[in-house]
Amino acid sequence: MKIKSTLEIVIVVISVTLLVLLIASGSFFIYWNLASPDRTCASCHEIGKSVNMFVQSAHREFKCQECHGTALSNGFHSLREKGLMVAHHVRNKIVEDIRLNEDQLLAVMDNCNGCHAAEYADWSSGGHSARYHDILLDRKHNETEQINADCLRCHGMFSDLPVQDLVEPLDKTGPWVLKIPEMADKPVIPCMACHQTHRKGLPKVNPDYSNPGSIFYMREDTSEVVGFYYRPDRSSISVEYLPKLTLWEGERSVNVSDDILMRNCVQCHSPDARHQAGTSDDLTPRGVHEGIGCTACHEIHSNDARQSCIKCHPAISNCKLDVTTMNTTYKNQKSPNNIHWVGCIDCHKEKNFKGN
Q: What are phi and psi of 249, to 5 degrees?
């Protein structure tokens, strides 16, 4: 009877202990998810820099876990990360600049869809939603230009690995294969390539409907939420600090739009080191469209330009022609008259054409 009693006591003690631990853990988990960030995430000095940016951002009314998830969101991976944080504290290993790895960043990007569903859908249908296999295994491009480290400056800027660890061989002959097959469907230009979520900004508010001017003329400029992620420095540069493109066509200076958003576009869609128009990936408008910005024709998230002509031209143009039927790349991708630098004479071959 004594042995049985002792066993019963042990079972009771263990059960009570487990129950207490369960209640304590549950209470702490609930507190962590409901308490103000300055009492939870923000209390860790290692992420002080991110927190300071967050409290000035348009997302500051959200809780951290709404974008980043909780300690249990990603199962064992999350627990491992939290365990390493504790280990670092015990070892007095101070990590002053904590950053998300590529998988963590993509997990956060998936949460963007919760609030920005329309923008996410536009991005998904546009050219910027390309995956690693679309870029690094493109035979036509790889046979023209050899894969090199600079590819990741625009295509894979958040990659944790250098290009030689992603694809092989690094030559123009191929055949090319991804060294890590599971990378194939990961996007190479995620939201954070152009948007810094902790960037300074104001939460969205309704206009003052009693004052018609505030509905449009007094609206806050939202360009500060756009920036270019610079891979070598692993940091985002706000568009307001990016330089306006200087471009030349031979010895002639090309008129480039003052649109501040275009400064972001030309970081990837850029000319060669000599800043010659039309070289490398430059698509800066010239010809009849010289001086207009990228967003005058291209939708910001989808890059769609199918409705661009009608924005500036009526159904019939000044020369009494439907501009959408002209022989340009707007009508036919294989047209020799690229819409970005088409001139009047390219479509109007009449000898007596005066340009009006």
A: -115, 95
DSSP 182: G
Location of structure tokens 């024709």: 297
HSE at residue 281, side-chain half, CA atoms within 13 A, is: 11
In 108-147, which positions are buried (b, 16+ CB within 10 angstroms) versus exposed (e)? bbebbeeeeeebbebbeebebbebbbebbbbeeebeeeeb
Domain residues for the domain of 152 are 117-193
From residue 150, give the alpha-carbon distance in Å to each of 230, 232, 267. Answer: 12, 10, 12
* DSSP annotation string for 326-350: SSSTTT-TT-SS-TTT--HHHH---
Distance separating alpha carbons of residues 183 and 343, to the nearest angstrom: 43
Q: Is residue 280 part of a domain?
A: yes
The pTM assigned to this predicted structure is 0.79
Provide the number of structural domains found in the chain. 4
- Do the domain assignments include residue 273? yes
Query: Is residue 147 domain-shared with residue 87, that is, in the same domain?
Result: no
pLDDT tens digits, one per residue of 284-333: 999 999 999 999 999 999 999 988 888 888 766 666 778 888 889 988 88
Residues 251 and 353 grouped into a single domain: yes
169 within a domain of the structure (yes/no):
yes
**Do 228 and 194 touch, CB atoms closer than 8 A?**
yes
Cα torsion through 41, 46, 52, 57, rounded to 10: -60
Name residues whose C-beta falls within 8 Å of residue 149's C-beta, 6 or more positions apart in sequence. 162, 163, 164
Closest among 119, 151, 149 to 138, alpha carbons compared = 151
Please check whether residue 184 lies inside any domain of the structure: yes
Q: What is the largest CA-CA distance in the chain?
A: 117
DSSP 298-315: S-TTT---TTHHHHHS-S
Token pair for 322: 């439907």
